[in-house]
């Protein structure tokens, strides 16, 4: 299975519509890939909080239409990153979209863990409530977004639901890039799954982005890593390696769940 992660340069000098057209063209070019992955909130920028409300779209809005057509034109599975979604009641969500090679919506995931510590996204966006997996011919994807990476229980839930490839779109800041790499490898090792983590390049809302999109195998080996600038990271994966790893080193079978809490003293 060939995966292409498109690490988009997101900056304040480019309009949302111009970037949408540019990214659509990049997706259309990935005809040799089976799966294409885009970053989080690449239309607005993950830290451009003032744009969330003004640029929010209905689920089936302009970005949805452009990405559905691009997936169909390229004949690829497309994790189209996420958009600021406005639902019919007016609430905002950070919503990831996954399309099939025919351009049909295969899944929508509303980000569960919102970043900001009672500011920014944590206040402006609603929280998702459902884990999302997508069955591809070669593997089952588990879908997560950016700050979710810090919460291992979410990924355990995805694995319990059958995920073999964990796909994460992000707008991760440069100042915490070491955490990005460390946590991507940790999620791969502890879940014995591939991790495909696609971030943004550039600077938006005054926040330099980490870039360094990364692909990690079930043993924690980094198969490919981007640099700091806009880049398309393409890697060939062997989906059978997940089952082989879990059979060779069956740590997941030793999980102990439902343990009693410690006694009160």
Automatic annotation (TrEMBL):
GO terms for molecular function: hydrolase activity. InterPro entries: C-N_Hydrolase (IPR003010), C-N_Hydrolase_sf (IPR036526), UPF0012_CS (IPR001110). Gene3D superfamilies: Carbon-nitrogen hydrolase. PROSITE patterns: CN_HYDROLASE, UPF0012. The keyword Zinc does not apply. Belongs to the carbon-nitrogen hydrolase superfamily. NIT1/NIT2 family. This is Hydrolase. The lineage of its organism: Bacteria, Bacillati, Actinomycetota, Actinomycetes, Kitasatosporales.
């Amino acid at each position: 299975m060939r995966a292409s992660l498109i690490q988009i340069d997101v900056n304040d000098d480019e309009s949302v519509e111009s970037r949408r057209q540019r990214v659509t063209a990049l997706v259309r070019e990935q005809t040799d890939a089976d799966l294409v992955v885009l970053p989080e909130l690449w239309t607005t920028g993950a830290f451009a909080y003032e744009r969330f409300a003004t640029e929010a779209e209905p689920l089936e809005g302009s970005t949805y239409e452009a990405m559905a057509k691009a997936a169909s034109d390229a004949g690829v599975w497309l994790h189209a990153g996420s958009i600021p979604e406005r639902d019919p009641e007016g609430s905002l969500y950070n919503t990831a979209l996954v399309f099939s090679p025919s351009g049909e919506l295969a899944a929508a995931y509303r980000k569960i863990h919102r970043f900001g510590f009672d500011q920014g996204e944590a206040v402006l966006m609603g929280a998702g409530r459902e884990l999302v997996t997508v069955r591809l011919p070669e593997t089952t994807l588990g879908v997560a977004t950016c700050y979710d990476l810090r919460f291992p229980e979410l990924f355990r839930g995805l694995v319990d639901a059958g995920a073999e490839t964990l796909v994460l779109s992000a707008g991760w800041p440069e100042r915490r890039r070491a955490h990005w790499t460390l946590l991507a490898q940790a999620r791969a090792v502890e879940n014995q799954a591939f991790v495909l983590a696609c971030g943004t390049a550039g600077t938006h809302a005054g926040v330099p982005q980490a870039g360094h999109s990364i692909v990690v195998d079930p043993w924690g080996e980094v198969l490919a890593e981007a640099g700091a600038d806009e880049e398309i990271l393409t890697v060939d994966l062997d989906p059978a390696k997940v089952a082989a790893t879990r059979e060779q080193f069956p740590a997941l079978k030793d999980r102990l769940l439902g343990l009693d809490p410690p006694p009160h003293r």
